Please model this.
Amino acid sequence: MMNTKVIDLKDALWLLLLAVLALLPLVPFVSGSFFGMHVLILVLLFASMAQAWNIIGGYCGQVSFGHSVFFGIGAYGAGMAVVTYGGLPWGGILAGMVLAAVVAVIISYPCFKLTGHYFAIATFAIVEIFNRAFLVWEWVGGALGLDYPVIEEGLANLMWYETKEGYYYCALGLFVIVFGIVRWLESHRFGYYMRAVREGQETAESLGVNSTAVKLGAMAISAALAALCGSFFVQYNLRVDPPMVMSLDMSMKFVLVTILGGSGTLAGPLLGAAVLIPLQEYTRAFWGGLGGGVDLMIFGVLIIVIVIKEPAGIIGILAGIGKSLARRGGTAQGGA
Amino acid sequence: METFAQVVLDGLLSGMVYALVAAGLCLIWGVMDVINFAHGEYLMIAMYVSYWLGFLANIDPVVSVIAAGVFIFIIGALTYLLIIRYTVGKPPLAALLATFGLAMFLKNLCLNRFSPNFLILSDTWLGGKTFQLGGLIFPAPQLAAAALALIVVGLVYLLINSTRFGWAVQATAMDREAAELMGIDTERIYILIFGIGGACVGIAGGIMPSYLAVHPEVGSLFGLIAFVCVAMGGFGSIPGAFLAGLLVGVAEALAGFYIAPVFKYIAVFGLYLAVVFLRPKGIFGW
Model:
């Protein structure tokens, strides 16, 4: 009896997700407002970023605060292809993804020997090191960063000026790619390995799972997808500098969106982004002018409240509502 | 050679202050296994307390240290009562994220109230004074801060290791339930530890306006350096955090002087990685 209800809830969430996905491509025709489009694009981008983090942080249980490094590498890949070499961004995007995966494996291998807070602080340290190194590295533009030249808009250059619709469809494409990969991983053997490592590394190893290989693989996939998100981010912003992409705040966004949505679940990152990003953007628009800071104060308080009240994230709140509805339905039937 | 000694001296002086900031964090981490992400923001608020006392009431930072320490003690205790208490027994990340939210709130509250401008206290007792000893130049404010840090870290160490209260703290850190069965009020211990951890960083922040400008972002980097010191020193070890603070200060000064200022923090964070890759639980960890 209990089991069927849990499955019902999961199916309901799936249907909800599918419904949202089916409706999303129609949004540009409905929403004429520039700002509304901007928020939607950011929701899709941050949902994808959070989902990329979710692979290693949620499913595999290794809480990394270093994802802004991979995000930044992707951003610089696309940025340098366009700005430094005057070419199309696509080669740079691919190079950024591969490089991010390689860097992820190289730096994660020693870090995975650390546990708990030692691991978390090591990933902070790596972000700070990359941040400073990029600030003084002339080849990547140093502290000035890279500013995009004005070139022809369109899909080839992955750049639009007049409307945001092009970006919107690209963000949607990004979203579908990242969520599709994670959905596939979830039901594939590797996904089970990841969850086994999260639940108990020793137990997983005793059953023949090579936990180091699983964690490194998950990290590589996660980093490559984070880099893909980074290259979209730079194409959307048309500018990149080290503090913008490789910072602790950016790393925290990967973690926050996922955890507040519900980590280790497919829908969590989308839920987290769908709640937090509009909140962030609209509070910024409303209160951003009042001497600054009010939007982020509200954001900070909100983080505290969600973490304290519902550590399972927004998906936990939904599950709670679903459960109480099911209970009410059950008693109503019993009464009749 | 003389330059080298001077650079190392400067590093040691700032390292002592890092050690004091880290000691507060270390206490909280060691007893409760909580990383307080708002630690750097405590420092920033302490600096504002000291700055405004100096600016409005003309009280020197050397005196305001006490007020800043007491103020952050209260903020620390309140952090525990209002936030940390509710994260006990939840996923380990909960306290870290909640304190990150608190850090964000505090930083932007100060940004909103006091503007992002750098505020500098002029005409302090120690400001700009130096004295020489055998070819080495000692800047008075940094020296006073270092001496104060040394004293406070020593007192905290004594408090934890040779008082009844300290033994109760250690018992609570080892096993909360067993400590409670022995009649220790662990809730009170937690409140006090958060308060004392805050007071340490409050004292460090209280004296800093003698030589450092105050602004809302000033705490972030100190907070990060404190994390690095604590983890480098080893879980909950105050001597470890102290040693790590000195190492970090010297590494920072040497890299900043001999390579380039921007390499300061590459050296600091690189040093942390080197230490934990060799000893995954820190210098004095096990």
User: Anything to note?
Assistant: Residues 2-335 of chain A form a domain with the ABC transporter involved in vitamin B12 uptake, BtuC fold (CATH 1.10.3470). The two ends of chain A are 19 Å apart (CA to CA). The interface with chain B takes residues 63, 110, 113-118, 120-122, 124-126, 128-129, 132-133, 135-136, 248, 252, 255-256, 259, 290-297, 299-304, 307-308, 311 of chain A (CB under 8 Å). The first strand of chain A starts at residue 146 and ends at 147.
